[in-house]
Design a protein that fits this description.
The chain is of the alpha+beta class. Helix content is 24%, strand content 36%. It has a single domain, classed as Electron Transport, Fmn-binding Protein, Chain A (Pnp Oxidase, Chain A, Roll). Strands 1, 2, 3, 4, 5, 6, 7 and 8 form an 8-stranded antiparallel sheet that branches. β1 and β2 form a beta hairpin. It is globular, with a radius of gyration of 16 Å.
Length: 162
């Protein structure tokens, strides 16, 4: 990977890390698209992890139709990252216990005092961690600051990510 691509990958990684609240689109029954707000943890390989309940719509949809999309935005600088990938429940081969502290840190660091993700509002301990394996990740900035073009687009090179 060349230096420019490495810098571009770092830009996208930092954007998701700094803007972890996004919207996930899943395929539901009868071809319906369902949307939900989620907090995501991204690792150095650009795998994304979200927490839900095993019996919630996101989790059930991903089990039936694993193709999914996520979008992360920053309305202040008119920037977004779109992730298209495949979701799968995290199983014994990837320890949920190892992932939960990372996900909890994202929630703690970015959680608004006025908004708590719905999964945090439900009592109980039965959580499911879903891993999103990206097929493509695209960063788009529409901000115009006088030096950059009005549209800046970066595609992440997923092999050897960071």
């Amino acid at each position: 990977m060349d230096t420019q691509q490495a810098n571009d990958n770092r830009t996208v990684y930092e954007f998701i890390t700094n803007n972890p609240c996004g919207t996930i689109a899943t395929h539901g029954d009868e071809g319906r698209i369902n949307l939900a707000n989620v907090f995501a943890y991204v690792d150095n390989n650009f795998f994304l992890y979200i927490v839900t309940r095993p019996d919630h719509r996101k989790s059930l949809n991903i089990k039936e139709h694993p193709q999914t999309s996520l979008i992360f935005t920053d309305q202040n600088d008119v920037t977004q990252v779109e992730v298209i990938g495949v979701g799968k429940p995290v199983d014994e081969t990837e320890s949920v216990a190892e992932l939960l502290p990372n996900i909890q840190e994202v929630l703690t660091r970015h959680k608004s005092a006025y908004w708590v993700p719905p999964v945090s509002q439900i009592e109980g301990e039965n959580y499911a961690v879903v891993k999103i394996v990206p097929e493509s990740i695209t960063y788009r900035s529409y901000a115009k600051d006088g030096t950059e073009p009005a549209l800046k687009e970066i595609s992440v090179l997923l092999e050897g990510s960071l």
